[in-house]
Each structure stands twice: as structure tokens, then as C-alpha cells.
Amino acid sequence: MAGFNEFVTAFSQSLGSSGYTIRHHAPNGTPVQVVFSDPIFQTPLIAIPDIHLSDAGPGDIFLSGGADKPKQLAAVLRATLDLLNSHPTSTQAIQLGDWFDVWRTAGGDVRSTYFGPIQNAAVYKEILDLDAQIGLAHVIGNHDASFVRALPDRRVQQPSLFRLGFWLGQSVYAMHGHQTDIAPPVNAASDQFFVAAATTLAEFIPGVSTFEAYIDRFGTGNGIKEWLLSGFGLLRGDPPLQQRPLDPATPPVGVQGSFVQREGRDNIAHVVSEVSNLPASHGRAARLVIVGHSHVPCVAFSTASGPPVVIIDAGSWTYDQANILIAAADTAAVFDVVKS
Q1: Least confident span in 78-82, 124-128, 192-196
Q2: How confident is the model at residue 236 (pLDDT cuts 50, 70, 90)?
Q3: Does domain 4-339 have CATH number 3.60.21?
């Protein structure tokens, strides 16, 4: 099992061949990093947060960061592919949702499968080619919720790699984070079970890769059905950039980090607790949850649903951001991708 520093060096060296490097994302000089007293990553991990590829027009918030952004992201994907090819059984890679920004491209219908303008944008060809070559796993986010109905053309044969949540080992879970601010319908007694089950549907239910198939096969009350279909495809933008206060509470035993009071942290912990309780989770329980959605890297924790759950927010690639999360052994940290 590769150590954290060793894996960071390997990724940085691979990225350097394209003229980029990484540095710790450290607002106010404090790295966004969490260190456990024991290894929780059996396999080193590269996690790419929200990208928001749109139609390359004026509203494209990925390209708003500058003309260099496609080259920058392609460099990250090439470095990821290099490591996966060099260590095919000992490296994982995941993208944390909002890969496409369908609701901007489709004019507001977040559940539309209007992918053409994104897939055919010449500026994104290398990125999408590398995505397919890697076979990159994608969490489904609120801006690309249409992936629960149909997948991008280059990835249509890989439905198991587009999910609402992924277990990354025995004690690490990845989800987008938008699930946490969904308000369940009044009097829906089974709401948390169904959101948890839907979050893991593609992994735990063979042959079921869409909400519709899940609902048709297992059935729910009308209220829950409408909540699931509307909630995970809800038309809304992302939360405003947050100024999060430091968390004065005593951190979990055996965990080091600069913890903040992240919005929605207790809801995230509750959803993941429900996921852990599903029989198909086979006893897995999250000690760490990796999310995106808020676009602001941070580390938080919650004790609202039992044992402490640490939550690390990996940032985004919107506007002038270019973040990546790297994890191995006992450590996970967020980095900025910058020119060498």
C-alpha cells in the first residue's frame, strides 16, 4: 500500500510532464487535510470534484476560469490515466458529480438528456476522450441528474460507473452532497431508507441503473416516488460560497485536521448511516465521506448519527478554481492544480 507522500509525489511527477504541478489548498495557511491514526485507504485515490462542462458558451462556468482550463483538466486526466496504467490494481479514481452542467445547457431542465452541445464542443474533445479511456467513475450530481435517465454517448456501455454514491473501501464513502438539502414529503415514513437505497442503487441492485427502474422494480408510495424523482433532479443552482466558522467542538479521537462547521454535515452523516444499514453494504460503515457540491474545500465532522463521521469537501473546477483530492493510507488532502 503506497504512502500518502509517495503517492502525491508520483501524481505530481506525472502531472509535471504537462507543465502543471499541485500545491496544498491552504486558505489562511492551513491545509485542507485530514489525517487518521490508522490507514483507512487500502488503495490510493484521486478524486476530481465538480467540473460543470457546459456548451462552451457565455454561461459556461468551467471556461469562465480562462482559456487554459481545458488543457489544465486534460493534464490532470492524463496524469490519472498514467497512474492507473502503471498501477491498475492499486489506484482508484472518481469524479464527484456535476461532470456536465446539463441544466445550464438545456435552459433549466435539469432532468433533460440534452447532452449534444456538451459532447460536441470541440474544446472538450480531449477531456471527454480521456474520460472514456480512463473509464472514470462518476457520482451523479444535481447539475447532471439526467445521468439517471441516460448516459453520455461515450460512456453508455458503463452504467455501473455512474452512481449516486460509491463505497471506496470498508470505511470511505463518496457522494455529491446535494442530497443533504432535500426536504422529504410530510408523512413519508420510509423517506430516509429510500434516499439511501437510491443513493447506492447501481452498486447494490444488479441491472438497475436508473431511478425509474429502481422505482418500477421495488415500488414506493407516490409521495416518495415524486420526492426522489424531483429531489435528485431538482432545478437549482449550487449554494453560495461559504465562509465557514471553525468548529469549537472536540474533534473525533484519532483524527487530525482543521475542522469547520460545514452546512449540511449532519444530513450527510444521516444519509450515509442509512446506506451503511442496507444489507447490501455488508457491514461497511463510513468513517470518512468525500463530497463536492459546495465548491469550497473544507473538513468537518458530525456525531449526529452515531460514531463520528468526517466529511471532506473537495472543491470544484468552476471559474478560477482547479482542485483535486488525493488520498492514500491515513491521509486525504485537497490540492490546487497550478502551472509549474
Answers
A1: 192-196
A2: low
A3: yes
What are the helix and strand counts (H, E) for the chain? 10, 14
Q: How far apart (Å, rounded) are the C-alpha atoms in residues 112 and 209? A: 17
d(CA 196, CA 194): 5
**CA-based torsion, 64, 67, 70, 74: positive or negative:** negative
Which residue type does 106 have? Answer: A
**Cβ atoms of 260 and 298 closer than 8 Å:** yes
CA–CA separation, 275 vs 278, rounded Å? 5
Q: Where are the beta strands (DSSP E) in the chain?
A: 20-24, 33-36, 41-48, 92-95, 137-139, 162-163, 166-167, 172-174, 255-257, 288-291, 298-302, 309-313, 323-329, 331-339
Segment 296-328, tens digit of pLDDT:
999 999 999 899 999 999 999 999 999 999 999
Single-letter amino acid code for the residue at 281: S
Q: Choose the weakest-confidence range: 54-63, 76-85, 171-180.
A: 171-180
Do residues 256 and 35 lie in contact, with contact meaning Cβ atoms separated by under 8 Å?
A: yes
- Cell digits of residue 116: 449534444
Parallel, antiparallel, or unpaired for β 20-24 and 323-329?
Answer: unpaired
Q: What is the pTM of this model?
A: 0.88
Residue where the block lists cell 474533445: 125
Locate the domains of the chain by residue range. 4-339
Grid coordinates of 23 = 500545491
The average pLDDT across 67-93 equals 93
Q: What is the pLDDT of residues 189-235, one digit of tens each?
A: 444 444 444 554 444 444 444 545 555 555 555 554 554 445 554 44
Take residue 122 and report the three cell numbers written for it. Answer: 470541440
Q: Which helix (H) or strand (E) holds 223?
A: helix 222-231
- Give me the helices (H) in the chain, please: 4-16, 69-86, 102-105, 116-119, 125-134, 191-199, 201-204, 211-218, 222-231, 265-277
